[in-house]
Amino acid sequence: MQLFYLPDITNKAILSKEESFHCLKVLRCKKDQLIHLTDGKGNLFSAIIDDENLEACSLRKVKKLLSKKSKYKIHLVVAPPKRIEKSEWMIEKISEIGVDKVTFIYSQHSERRKIKLDRLEKISIASMKQSNSFKKLKIEEITSYQNFLKNFNKSGEKFIAHMDKENKTIKTIFKINKTYTILIGPEGDFSSNEIIDAHKKKFKSISLGKNTLKTETASIIACYSIIQLMS
User: Fold this and answer.
1) What are residue 42's phi and psi, to 5 degrees?
2) Tens digits of residue pLDDT in 48-78
3) CA–CA separation, 104 vs 106, rounded Å?
4) Parallel, antiparallel, or unpaired: how do β-strands 157-161 and 179-184 relate?
5) What does R_g of the chain's alpha carbons equal in angstroms?
6) What is the pLDDT of residues 12-54, one digit of tens each?
7) Pick among 3.50.50.60, 1.20.140.10, 3.40.1280.10, 3.40.50.720: CATH of 73-230
8) CATH 1.10.443.10: does it fit domain 3-67?
9) Which of 52, 164, 191, 221 has CB atoms 3.0–4.6 Å from 108's, for a disulfide?
10) Beta-carbon neighbour count of residue 180 at 10 Å?
């Protein structure tokens, strides 16, 4: 099924310029053709193409087909890798597996303190449509690690992954909950003080295995481990 993304769907919907071009020029859809839409919030719609405007393709007879509600939510908090393409790859993959939100942070050992939010948004939308998911990954602008912790007051299960041989795996301490937050540091790891600060916020230290993982790999493994344990 070919999906189109429209965050605010009404009875008389209009596709964005980018989605209109993809629909009419790339996929060669025609007037009066039935297409499928998602608002990125778990809902699937059908609609009929009303015109072939490459700048703003209008739709009619918008109908909600189904609504998917998640039993749990995963929030990944991660220091972006040094190479921007690694962040892009990570966004693509966590979008595919169904992570709800990602917050980028910079910590003491971070090598990157900027992200290209517009570019990452486009990747998350493309990944959502490609995987036939109806839920768009929410991407938050980068902030400092300390600022994130200062403003973080959510309940649920909270984990911080770091390289300590004494840490237990997610599986051994996992508890069923409605929300999960996972902290993943830079390749230089979190500092000891940063780990202590996370513990003060009730984050539990975890191990992701014996091997030293790259940030983007650790992020996917941590998130997918929770998905598997909730299955």
Assistant:
1) 100, 5
2) 999 999 999 999 999 999 998 889 999 999 9
3) 7
4) parallel
5) 20
6) 799 999 999 999 999 999 999 999 999 999 999 999 999 999 9
7) 3.40.1280.10
8) no
9) 191
10) 26
